[in-house]
């Protein structure tokens, strides 16, 4: 492939690559009626330069490097995919899909899922409902522990957790996006489609690759991959990277910028290969301690209404940084636009908050694939996966940079009004293990098939923690006993008895005295406490058999069909919510929880032709 772009003639990518990306990253916006609910609407402010260059290459004629040589014949690059569990030209696969080879990933400048989203019709990545294809999403993905509408595979291993799968899309052999139900081809069924990431394997030749990237947002990436033979049958490959920089979301408040990466990854792998057997073991570790992205607003708040957003913007005189160049109508306390709504043609990815956003994410991922050729046309394949992920994100949730006054921590410094300052944190945990056994054919004739068995175990935990000041009167002290003693009680338990509740904790079902250091109610500054917690946990066990066959009638017609039997068993554990209120200055906890549901078994046989 050749052509010209913004930087001159395009040449085959060298081993050492310098990527420059001047585009702005994904931004989440608050719609006019979402000031309180916090629903997310994603909008890309500017396309990546790499995608623009790729479009220019497609539109430009292919120029010969040497005028004396004849022009090359035009050709279509052959992309090999494994959507049907065997290597095939994508043009011969009877599926609706998009695929990107290593060369395409490099030439289009793809470095993350936002780039992939721009190049795949109907694909959209989101936070609330996960990934969607053709508008089909996963309702209540986090708190409901629902199945994913779009399945994700890493080197053939299914996962519900996409974190750390492909940092920077570096050392990636290919990416495949299949549209439509995926029930009889893969271990895990999915209604909307699937995304498969395939990393490069070790080879019997020595090679090394280095990638460096610097952007005008003062971010920088450094990636390296190298490997080669250890013996005649064993080879290795090690890839790693570091990605850090200033935040892409400029913060005009006292807190640091948001969307600031601080991520590193390391992935060693081993490959053992003989004439009839091939095994590949890969481990990946990814960590990120940077700052997350956050929402920006497309609406002007009603600053004259003390009830709007619980007073967060009451008499707030600073501009909303994302719409400083827009003439938009204000939003009232009922979350409806109070005037004629005007479009915002020039939104900015800028915020103003007083609280830092923080990330504390880590994942460990093992994948094992072993192929044994039973005959020249039949292959038995075993795929194993094990993932452990821990994630914690915190964000400023009142979307202002208001801070307490020097004389009263409950009064805003910029106006004589009640201070409302809120921070959310979102913990997430995922532990999963899967096994898949496949028998695939590769006949020269018109008939081929794939049959397999799949087992999967999963535990997920999701939570929300809310910290704040201004939602309620402050605590006299964060230690309930000290606060109770300040008003004449011996302890918090005695105070609960005076309030009309049993003093014996075993006789109280929903009320409790928070334990310092265990029930987190500590403060960042006076009056700033954790006052709400929600946690939900679920487990899942799946076992399935599936088979798919196809017969090529002629060059124009091919018929295929498949069957799948699935057994699913899900258990929703206790979902716990806790409020910690201030009653006479004493921290008092109110706890609610659902009764754990019995195991819910489900089985179904499906088919298609």
Features:
mainly beta; Maltoporin, Chain A; 17-stranded mixed sheet; 35 strands; 6% helix; disordered N terminus
Please specify the SSE layout and strand pairing.
Elements: E1 3-5, E2 8-10, E3 16-19, E4 26-30, E5 41-44, H1 49-59, E6 80-81, E7 88-89, E8 97-101, H2 102-107, H3 113-119, E9 123-124, E10 132-133, E11 150-154, E12 157-159, E13 172-179, E14 193-199, E15 207-214, E16 219-229, E17 234-245, E18 250-251, E19 262-273, E20 277-288, E21 295-297, E22 300-301, E23 330-331, E24 350-351, E25 358-359, E26 361-373, E27 378-396, E28 421-441, E29 447-469, H4 480-485, H5 492-498, E30 511-512, E31 529-552, E32 558-572, E33 576-583, E34 586-593, E35 600-608
Parallel strand pairs: 3-15, 4-21, 11-14, 18-24, 22-23
Antiparallel strand pairs: 1-2, 4-5, 6-7, 8-13, 9-10, 11-12, 13-14, 15-16, 16-17, 17-19, 19-20, 20-26, 25-27, 26-27, 27-28, 28-29, 29-31, 30-34, 31-32, 31-33, 32-35, 33-34
Structural write-up:
With 609 residues, this protein is mainly beta. 6% of the residues lie in helices and 44% in strands. It contains five helices and 35 strands. The chain has a 17-stranded mixed β-sheet that branches. A five-stranded mixed β-sheet has the order 8-13-14-11-12. The longest helix has 11 residues, at 49-59. Mean pLDDT is 78; it is low at 1-70 and 333-341.
- What is the CATH topology classification name of the domain at 3-295 and 358-397 and 426-462? Maltoporin, Chain A
Structural class: mainly beta
Overall pLDDT score: 78
Strand content: 35-45%
Uncertain regions: pLDDT < 50 for 5+ in a row? 1-70, 333-341
CATH class category name of the domain at 3-295 and 358-397 and 426-462: Mainly Beta
Integer-rounded radius of gyration: 28 Å
Annotated CATH homologous superfamily of the domain at 3-295 and 358-397 and 426-462: TonB-dependent receptor, beta-barrel domain
